[in-house]
Write a structure and sequence with these properties.
With 281 residues, the chain is of the alpha/beta class. It contains eleven helices and eight strands. The protein has a single domain, classed as Alpha-Beta Barrel (TIM Barrel).
């Protein structure tokens, strides 16, 4: 089992960074690089072995002409604080709102995603992670564009925070098409952990490795967010045990999760226990 890191945006907000603009987590690259560095370091210390660069919103349509400079800076920040032997994943996100597939440009996004993939590869990423896609056409376009670069490409679909945008059958259909296009791993992300299992099951028989990083669901479920503590992390891991039984070989966390969740995952599934979190984690 490989342990993916957890949410970046959630951690930045928890450390006092306001993420209320279209650039969202990307604003930390310039405004609070030291805080972003602390987030990546905390996940490494917690036991994550796969680290996602903060490039979810480093896009031309969001950051303008400076997008590529910010993308490179985001990759450099994570590279500087994680072990050299561990992989850095370059995040490629939907052009529009990831929870509004009706706004997606669909296949017309191919050239934009190809450009982002090339920039991430040039910046030194090991894997291209096309993540949080709910529109089939754009998801497959992102995969196709990223595949042209020559790095391993992982595709992660979301059904929305509470599973309202796609069905498990949709996941299976899109997953089959992604396999035919040469995807290296299929993942499900940013679905409530309590609702994630059917979506993981949809990928289980498609013949490629599977991964999962769920969100913490509703705040009343007490799996994360402001309720993040060791008990919440343990409840998340109990749900993750089912994903591992299904066949997931990469597990991490999405919105509402943090280093406590990753430490708990590492202790349960990783090759070794994560270090005890220190000050600032």
């Amino acid at each position: 089992m490989e342990i993916l890191d957890g949410a970046i945006g959630t951690e930045l907000i928890g450390r006092g960074i306001e993420l209320d603009g279209a650039d969202w987590s990307a604003r930390a690259i310039r405004r609070a690089p030291e805080v972003l560095s602390e987030v990546h370091a905390a996940y490494a210390k917690a036991g994550a072995t796969l680290h996602t660069a903060n490039t979810f919103r480093t896009q031309p349509g969001v950051l303008g002409d400076e997008w590529c400079d910010d993308l490179r800076a985001a990759v450099a920040i994570v590279r500087a604080v994680v072990p050299e032997t561990q992989k850095v994943l370059g995040s490629i996100a939907p052009i529009e709102d990831c929870y509004r597939p009706d706004l997606s440009p669909g296949r017309a996004a191919l050239s934009r995603h190809r450009e982002t993939a090339l920039a991430l590869a040039d910046a030194g990423c090991d894997v291209l992670l096309c993540e949080t896609f709910a529109d089939e056409a754009e998801a497959l376009a992102a995969l196709e564009g990223a595949r042209e670069v020559g790095l391993p490409v992982w595709l992660s679909l979301t059904a929305g925070p509470f599973g309202e945008l796609l069905t498990p059958s949709d996941f299976e259909r899109i997953g089959r098409e992604a396999v035919s296009l040469g995807v290296d791993r299929l993942l499900a992300n940013c679905i409530a952990a309590t609702q994630m299992t059917p979506f993981v099951e949809a990928f289980a028989s498609l013949g490629v490795p599977v991964g999962v990083y769920a969100n913490a669901g509703g705040k009343d479920e007490r799996l994360g967010w402001a309720n993040a503590d060791e008990d919440a992390a343990e409840r998340y891991v109990e749900l993750a045990e089912r994903w591992a039984e299904i066949g997931a070989t990469v597990i991490g966390g999405c919105c509402g999760t943090g280093p406590l969740h990753i430490r708990a995952l590492s202790e349960r599934f990783g090759s070794g226990a994560g270090d005890v979190l220190g000050p600032g984690a």
